[in-house]
Each structure stands twice: as C-alpha cells, then as structure tokens.
Design a protein that fits this description.
By secondary structure, this protein is of the alpha/beta class. Helices cover about 40% and strands about 15% of the residues. Bound molecules: NADP nicotinamide-adenine-dinucleotide phosphate (NAP) and ligand F7E.
Amino acid sequence: MKALITGITGQDGYFLAKLLLSKNYEVYGIARRKSNMSLGTLDCDETLKRSVNILWGDVLDNPFIESTIKQVKPDEVYHLAAQSFVGYSFENPEVTYDVNIKGTLHVLNSIKDYSKSTRLYNATTSEMFGKPQVTPQNEKTPFFPRSPYAISKLAAYWTVADYREAYGMFAVNGILFNHESEVRGPEFVTKKISLGVAKIYHGSHDPIVLGNLDAKKDWGYARDYVEAMWMMLQQDKPDDYVIGTGEQHTVREFVEEAFKVIGMTIRWKGEGVNEVGVSEDGRVLVKVDLRLFRPLESDNYMADYTKARIKLGWEPAVKFKELVKIMVEHDIKNLSQNHCFKRY
Ligand code: NAP
Ligand code: F7E
C-alpha cells in the first residue's frame, strides 16, 4: 500500500508516518523547502527520515500537487498540511485561508481528476464548534466557528463533504479535538507549559507566561489520534468522525498537573491579568500576559466520540494525567541530554 502525507514535518505527520511504516506502507511525504531545508519533526529520527520518500513542494502549488498525485497514485492520502495555529490566524487570516482552503481544494481536485480510487483523510478540527451550543460535542453538533482558522477548516470540511457526494469519492473529515505530544510545536500552550516546567526543574528562574488560564479543552495524545485517521480510511464507506477523550480540563489544570510531575504544588494568587502561580516557597512560576489572549476564545470543548468507538472500535489509550507526564518527562530528559527535537 502507498500513502501520501501532506504536512509530514508537523506533529501528526511524525506519528502517522511511524504508524504507516509499521504497517509496511510505502510512505511519501510532502515537505516545504525552507532556507535551512529542515524536515521539522522528522529531523530527530534518522530511521524514520530515511524510510520516508520526501517530495519537496507546497500545497499551494497546484501543478506540483497534480503531478505528485499522477506520479505516486497513492492508495491513501492524509491531508494534514495547514496553517494550524489559531492565534496566528487572527494576525494572518489570508495565509490561513489560502493554505487551509486552497490547499485542500488542490488535493481534492487532483485526486478527482487523476486518481479517483485514492482514499482521502482530511484534517478538520473541534475548533469548527467554536462557541459550542452543547457539551459534549459530536458529529451532529452545530458548527459556530470563532477564528479565521476555524472558518478555513469549516470551508475545507464542506468542500470534502461536497466532493464525496458529487463525485463519489472516498473522502473523510476527521473532526479531531486537541492532541499533543513530545513533538508538539513550541507555540501551543501544552508545550509552552511542559517546556517551561522542564526548564524550571533544571534551575531556570523564568516564569511561564500565559494567556487565558480558564480555557477548557479536551486534550489527547497524538499517537492515539493518528490511529483513528488510519481506521477511518479502512471502513467500507466514507464518513466523518469526532475524535477526542471525553474529558475536559482547563489550562490552569494543565499547569498544576505539570508542576506535580516535578513534585511542586502551585497556588494561585490575584485576579485577571494580575493573577500569578506561586510555589510553596513563594516564587512566581506563572504569570499572565494580556497580549496572549485571543480576540475571541473558543473554549468549552469536550468530545463525544461514541460514533468512533462503535464504528471504528477506537478508544484513546492516553488520558490527561499521563499525557502531561509524557510531555514534561520528555522535556526534562531532552533538555538535560541536549537531544533534539529541533522544533524548540
Ligand atoms: P503542525 O504541527 O502545525 O503541522 C502542520 C504541517 O503543515 C507542517 O508539516 C507544515 O510544514 C505543513 N504546511 C503548512 N503550510 C504548508 C504548505 N503551504 N505546503 C505544504 N505544507 C505545509 O500541525 P499538526 O498538529 O500536526 O496538525 C495536523 C493537521 O491536523 C493540521 O491540518 C491541523 O490543522 C489539524 N488539527 C490539529 C489538531 C491538533 O490538536 N494537533 C487538532 C485538530 C486538527 P512546515 O514544517 O514547513 O511548517
Ligand atoms: O491553545 C489558551 C488558548 O494554541 C489552547 C491546534 O492544534 O487545537 C489547537 O488549537 C488554549 C486556547 O491550541 C496560552 O487561548 C492560554 O484556549 O495550544 P493552543 P488551540 O488554539 O486549541 C485545535 C483543536 C486545532 O485544530 C489547532 O490546529 O490555551 N492559552 N495561554 C494559550 N495558548 C497559547 N498558544 N499560548 C498561551 O500562552
């Protein structure tokens, strides 16, 4: 079996490539040329890097996507490439719309025109629920997007649904809730916290500076979520699935749990932007900065993944506490060994 992954240099690309190789797939991955030709998350796993066929290109380059689909004729395409940072999407909506909508359109059109039997996984997101009308959220929950990122993903979601119906394509949308890991990008809140805690463990006096501590998310482990992506493409019929853990936690709880991993207890003092997290001996370990708040927050998430559990047989193996432990322990080790992942 041949699989093509767009966004292979990101977090999910890393875990998905590993999973597919373990199933003996021939794996092709699209990577963008950067001035340093870095391969992102793949750079720290030489075996993985050697096992993947890298195709240098951009999802915005339609002729490149067309020729790639024509030449590779993959059995499965996992379309993960995106401008995936919600905060940045408020600052640069145009780039976000371009990559996330046009990029998806290029992949869809190329499959339709040159490789109709290829199965497509499209990475969509719980962010499409935005300001959720009900909690927990499932495939029937109305969408209410609250950021350029969410709007772009909703456009891609409907485009995939439309092509599936109009042209009989095997194309699915995974509606994935937040998933994190050792190789999470440094701008995301979980990695900011795990890395900040690891630095404090190693003697740093720099507090971790955060925005909205009360945002409520459903955080799972990326390694579990890429299995769900694969499962969706092994079904008899194409369909869309919600993937999450069914647990809800705040950013504040993530901070508290992360400090527990290094044997520290956080106490909260003050209110709003003056709130701080202090250690038992009174050291300020966490601060709040208004600039890290978003113009709109989407923050009451919890997945109802019943459909995935029943139809795919999928369950998350790693829940909140274990996830936090995995991330903090990894960063502690990573810093002390000066071992890469080069993302941070
Ligand atoms: P990520 O770490 O930000 O990776 C994004 C990938 O897309 C990177 O490989 C990036 O390449 C690539 N990319 C961006 N623009 C591109 C372009 N114009 N052409 C080609 N490649 C491009 O994201 P992730 O966490 O792995 O997420 C994977 C997908 O799932 C994304 O679509 C994201 O929106 C979606 N998603 C993620 C989550 C989550 O919690 N992680 C939840 C729901 C949905 P560079 O390395 O060159 O930047
Ligand atoms: O924010 C709050 C912030 O940037 C999580 C992407 O993978 O998951 C991810 O999007 C929450 C938000 O992820 C900071 O306001 C507080 O409420 O880690 P994040 P995200 O925006 O949820 C979804 C499902 C995706 O689809 C996306 O691609 O944490 N928060 N303080 C902060 N967030 C950041 N980044 N930095 C802070 O200092």
